[in-house]
Fold these 3 entries.
Entry 1:
Amino acid sequence: MSHSYSKVFGALALLGLAVSCRANSPPMVSTGPRPSPQVVSAGGEVSFVFEVEDPDGDAMSFEWRQMPEQPAGRFSDPAARNPTWVAPDVSDTTTFAFLVIVEDSEGDAIVAQGPGVIVHAAASQAP
């Protein structure tokens, strides 16, 4: 009979350990990403205001993307927390959206997207 009780207490002890483990929380965005300026000409540089924290204090990684992907602008560092972006040459005025994937070191991730950036085509020059 005591052997049965020891199994029950052992199972309860393991359950108690599992319940007391801390759950991971994903990163939380407080601001942004907000581009500045929001209207540029081809070749113009845009910076981003982006504030994000991980409630658990986990390290975070960043992956910035533009949409549409073509024509491609240039991020100063697409893995940086707050990169800059240089607008590509466009044939017509084009609005680009930006998103950033933020993943903590425990594997929880979020996707944040802010307002778009309008890129004006370079003025054509007559020959």
Note: Confidence is low (pLDDT under 50) at residues 11-20.
Entry 2:
Amino acid sequence: MKEIRAGLVIGLFAALLGAVASGAQDAGDPAVIILDVEEDGEVEGPEEPVGPVRWDEPLTGSAEEIRGKTIEQVFTENSPLFPPLEGLPEEIWKAQTCTTCHEWTRERICEQATNYLNPEFSENLTKPHPLGGTFKANLKLWAEDGCL
């Protein structure tokens, strides 16, 4: 009988904990982020940016194209999904990384990210980023914490 009660208590606790975690994740609580790593290495998680964002830690909440990568990896490994400048010929941007044309450093990326904190630039956050729709919002979260 004791085993049955212990099993019920443990089962109840697990169910409550699962419900709390699910509710916190649905509410966007950054303390509870559930990422699924598929067998092929694909990382699944929330589509919205989730902080804190750190330079050398994988992005946990973001567009599929950048999820699971660090900020540096996004700049050095990802190719734009669309031309960074309207009318730019495909041979210049397609299958290229940002570092092909730009000399991005951590300091320069931080400087750019800090622009997203300025209310005058808030409209820019609604426009998709060529490297992934939520990347600007990820950079803003990074800047909010001092580009750590």
Note: Residues 1-32 form one domain.
Entry 3:
Amino acid sequence: MKNKKKLFICIGFFIIAALCNLWTLRPVKISHVYSDFNSSVFVVVDHLPWADRDKIEWFLSHREAFIKDYPLIDGIHHSYYIMDVGDGFTNNKESPKEDLLCFSMGKDEHNCIVKNYPLVVNERPYENIHFQISSDWSVNEYELTPEGKIEESNAKT
């Protein structure tokens, strides 16, 4: 009886670990991108990887495409705001008390999203790229060194 119970617990942990792994391995879907063509790009995604390092690596793997498709002014501070789509796009009438960011998306009235920035990337001329990763329980900051290493940072971005 004890062996069956241990086996059941082990199988349960294995299934949970497998589901978590599958969840983190699914590709990130970009729902919408907005650029002010000056200094900011807002990217709305369905989810981000769980680990901080994976979030940073996801951004770095898409960075060149963002630069190419959404050019910003050279020589000034740039910010990339990676936003979680959460419950989806809404409007001011349906969510009047939420802190919303609204985009001009044609005639669609569901053009706003609740401000939630799990990843903010700051690029300043002649400085390392800084990453601020926020969750419900913490804010962690990292920077990309000139050698291409991701290091935890104590500096505020």
Note: The mean pLDDT is 84.
